[in-house]
Amino acid sequence: MVGGAILRRLEARKAAGEDLAMITRTHAELDLTSQAAVRDFMQAEKPDVVILAAAKVGGIHANNTYPAEFIYENLMIECNVIHQAFDAGVKRLLQLGSSCIYPKAVPQPMSEDALLTGTLEPTNEPYAVAKIAGIKLCESYNRQYGVDYRSVMPTNLYGPGDNFHPENSHVLPALIRRFHEAAQAGTPEVVIWGSGKPMREFLHVDDMAEASLFVLDLDKATYEANTEPMLSHINVGTGSDISILDLAKLVAKVTGYTGKISNDPSKPDGTMKKLMDVSRLADMGWKAGVPLERGVAETYEWFLAAKDVRG
Asked: Which residue out of 72, 102, 127, 141 is catalytically annotated?
C-alpha cells in the first residue's frame, strides 16, 4: 500500500520532467527474506537510493496469532535490504517503521525520544522489536560507515491498496469491510472488538508518501539538525486521534450502515492511546493534508471498485 503510493508520487515527478528511473520488484519477483536474492538484486541494479516500505503487517488478531512470522519476516527484510544496499554502495536509504515501536505506558503524544524507555504493548511486541531493530540498523550503519540512512515512523495508515481481510487487516479497513457487508445484508447489529475507548490516529497513505519523500529530499544538514545520532527517526502523523467507537460511527456513516453498533469487551483493546508527537516534522515544514472523513470516503470508494474487479 505505502510502496504503491510512493511509486505514484515518483512517477508523477518523472512525468513532470524530473530525471528519475524507478527500480521495483513485486513480492513474487523478489523474496526480501532471502539474503542471496536481495544480494543478487542489489549487485545487479546498483541503485542510488533505496526506499524500504516492505513489511509483514496486520492488526491485533494477526499479531497475536502469528508472532513468529511477524518478528522473523520483518527482521529478515530489514537486515537483508539495509546490509545489501550498503554492500552495493547505496549512500541514501529511507526505511519505514511503525508507531508501535513506543512503550505501552508513555506520555502522550509520543515523541521520538520515548523509544526504549519502557515495556512494549504485548499484542504486537514481536513486530515492534523488529521495527526498532530497523531503526538501530540505520543508526549503526550511519555511525560506522558515514552513510545517510533515515527512518520515518508512521502512525496507523489507511487508504487505497489496503488489506481488507476480515481477520488479518488493521482496524480501519476491517471496519470498512464489516460495515459495508452489514449494510448490504441489512444486519441489525455490528459488534466491534474491545471497549471502543482506545484512541487511535490515522494517516492517509498519500500523506505518508508525501512525507516520506519530503524527509528523503531533506539535505543532510537539515535532517541531522532535527534528529540525533542515536535517535535518528522521525514521527509521521496527523497530530489528532479518534476513539475506536467514534471511528466505527464514522465508517457506518460513510458506508450507509444504520443499524446498532455495540462492543465486545472480552476482546483486547491494545494500547489505550497512541498519538504521535509530530512537532519535529512540522518544524521542518510538512503537515498532513487529508481529513479523516474524506480519506475514509475515498478508501471506501477504492474498496468498492476493487471489490467489483475481484468479484
From this structure: 127
